[in-house]
């Protein structure tokens, strides 16, 4: 069965699971059907996972990991001792853990084809990730507090684990206050603590709380670098990647690293 046939079969099963979902006609080509698959995965609520579906899904996602290209941590040069800066798709990084900027429900983004990192990570990891996060929330009996972190397997991602953290949400047109800055610093510290607790040696951070959560990029980077640098003074065997996606964040991090030299 080729990739196109696999994707069409996956779409048929997802649509049968959600019969009340209204879906517009989709062209019968590979790209359109693949976009439909991602959209259906995005909106599918946590429910039992069929083993045959997962086998087929994993084949498609594993193939796409290879197509995107895997970036090994040792292929990225150090910016500072044990600190690296890399711009690109975080789902390509082969590290012990990547960090997801999650929502408080930890279930991933339910907006079809949304461009946020939460959507990208869940879409590339597979439906098992939403199920694993759902189990965490069920067991603890409440949504995840801001500034804390939880760990799950990474499933179809090149990394071993995903560490999920909920950053502070800043109302538009307002600067973050001291409490919100402390909560963002806590996100980084909590992720690093979870990594140490699980005997991990490398972690890749996204730009937590920027973008959809409206934390100013410059201030967020300053807080991130300070929190990580302070942690590495104690745990100096941890390798940290600051993963940026936008040019503006890359420029900010480079400037901050140069000024601290």
Tell me the helix content.
40-55%
Query: How many helices does DSSP assign?
Result: 8
Uncertain parts:
none
The major pleated sheet works out as: 7 strands, mixed
Shape: globular
Terminal CA distance: 54 Å
Strand content: 5-15%
Description:
The protein has 261 residues and is of the alpha/beta class. The chain has eight helices and nine strands. The protein has a seven-stranded mixed β-sheet with strand order 2-3-9-8-5-7-6, sandwiched between helices. The mean pLDDT is 96.
In short:
This protein has 261 residues and is of the alpha/beta class.
Keywords:
two-stranded parallel sheet, alpha/beta, 8 helices, 46% helix, 261 residues
Set down the secondary structure blueprint.
Layout (H helix, E strand, L loop, with lengths): L2 H15 L12 H14 L7 H18 L2 E2 L5 E3 L2 E5 L5 E2 L2 E5 L15 H9 L1 H14 L8 E5 L7 E5 L12 H20 L4 E4 L11 H16 L6 E6 L2 H13 L2
Parallel strand pairs: 1-4, 3-9, 5-7, 5-8, 8-9
Antiparallel strand pairs: 2-3, 6-7
Helix pairs in contact: 1-2, 1-3, 6-7, 7-8
């Amino acid at each position: 069965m080729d990739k196109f046939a696999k994707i069409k079969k996956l779409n048929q099963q997802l649509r049968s699971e959600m019969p009340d979902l209204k879906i517009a006609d989709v062209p019968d080509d590979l790209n359109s059907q693949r976009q439909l698959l991602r959209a259906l995965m995005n909106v599918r609520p946590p429910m039992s996972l069929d083993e045959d579906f997962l086998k087929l899904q994993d084949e498609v996602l594993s193939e796409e990991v290879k197509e995107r290209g895997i970036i090994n941590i040792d292929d990225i040069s150090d910016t500072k001792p044990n600190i690296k800066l890399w711009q690109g798709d975080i789902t390509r990084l082969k590290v012990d853990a990547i960090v997801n900027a999650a929502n408080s429900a930890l279930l991933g983004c339910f907006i079809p084809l949304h461009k946020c990192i939460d959507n990208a990570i869940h879409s590339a990891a597979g439906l098992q990730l939403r199920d694993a996060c759902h189990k965490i929330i069920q067991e603890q009996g409440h949504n995840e507090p801001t500034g804390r972190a939880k760990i799950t397997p990474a499933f179809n991602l090149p990394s071993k684990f995903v560490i999920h953290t909920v950053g502070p949400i800043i109302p538009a047109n307002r600067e973050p206050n001291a409490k919100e800055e402390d909560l963002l610093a806590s996100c980084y510290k909590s992720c690093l603590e979870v990594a140490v607790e699980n005997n991990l040696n490398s972690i890749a951070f996204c730009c937590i709380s920027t973008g959809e959560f409206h934390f100013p990029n410059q201030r967020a980077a300053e807080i991130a670098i300070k929190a990580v640098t302070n942690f590495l003074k104690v745990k100096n065997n941890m390798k940290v990647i600051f993963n940026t996606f936008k040019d503006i964040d890359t420029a900010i991090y480079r400037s901050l690293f140069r000024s601290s030299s």
